[in-house]
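Lecture 7 notes: from sequence to structure.

We start with a single chain of 116 residues. Read the sequence below before looking at the structure.
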Amino acid sequence: QVQLVESGGGLVQPGGSLRLSCAASRSILNSYVMGWYRQAPGKQRELVATITNGGTTDYTDSVKGRFTISRDNAKNTVYLQMMSLKPEDTAVYYCNAHHRWLPEYWGQGTQVTVSS
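Now the structure, written as tokens:
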């Protein structure tokens, strides 16, 4: 069993920045694809960014150039650096660990609100 704990959410003004963190309870970053999802009120959960165990990253179009996903294997932590935030980025952000053959894990979510 793996626990994923997100932190770093909060209230920020449009144009501001936040950095989300996702700490895994044990070392899985070398074998799992780690991702960030988000879910806004009344909308489906959507994939925001992923990073493979090889370090390859991918982003949904709406955040390209503004968000950066990274990881620190020594700390078992994945980050999502968010810049130039927009009101439409407001959502609960979830950390995800995905493996083709092993169990999938989710964090409990952290709220990000972009508002003036």
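The radius of gyration is 13 Å. Keep this in mind for problem set 3.
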